[in-house]
């Protein structure tokens, strides 16, 4: 963790780790929480394995969808850790995604009340980290983490 480059959040989710893992790796469950409501998410590809694609679209009205995430998974350690980046797209080509390129690491651990859920979002330089924070990293990622918790608790 580098505070000049990274943004983090942590939460206890009151559900077993396997259930939280399933919400991250099952496309139907993932689509229900990954975008702040009332926006709607469609998962085009969720291949939870190293090198697998993560491609989603989003919609404000549930009719017209626009691209949202085109990324690949770098690390998928069953029930423990998921790392993905949007700096490489699902065709394994270097990308310059808007609003910021990032690598996100999700770490799950057992907690007496359920699952210790930790996120580290890494950026390539301080300006990208600052841009992501100003665009609402904490509001957005906290909102979808709350939605994740609500979907599994």
TrEMBL record:
Domain Activator of Hsp90 ATPase homologue 1/2-like C-terminal, residue spans: 14-152
Species per Swiss-Prot/TrEMBL record: Actinoplanes lobatus
Official protein name in the record: Activator of HSP90 ATPase
Pfam families assigned to the protein according to its UniProt record, in alphabetical order: AHSA1
Family: Belongs to the AHA1 family.
């Amino acid at each position: 963790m580098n505070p000049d480059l990274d943004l983090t959040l942590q939460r206890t989710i009151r559900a077993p780790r396997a259930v939280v893992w399933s919400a991250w790796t099952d496309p139907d469950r993932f689509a229900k929480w990954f975008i702040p409501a009332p926006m709607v998410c469609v998962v085009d590809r969720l291949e939870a394995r190293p090198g697998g694609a993560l491609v989603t679209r989003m919609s404000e009205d549930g009719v017209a969808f626009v691209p949202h995430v085109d990324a690949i998974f770098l690390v998928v350690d069953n029930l423990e850790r998921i790392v993905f980046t949007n700096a490489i797209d699902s065709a394994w080509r270097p990308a310059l995604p808007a609003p910021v390129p990032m690598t996100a690491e999700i770490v799950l651990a057992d907690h007496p009340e359920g699952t210790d859920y930790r996120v580290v979002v890494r950026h390539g330089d301080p300006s990208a980290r600052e841009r992501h924070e100003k665009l609402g990293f904490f509001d957005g990622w906290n909102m979808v983490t709350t939605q994740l918790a609500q979907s599994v608790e």
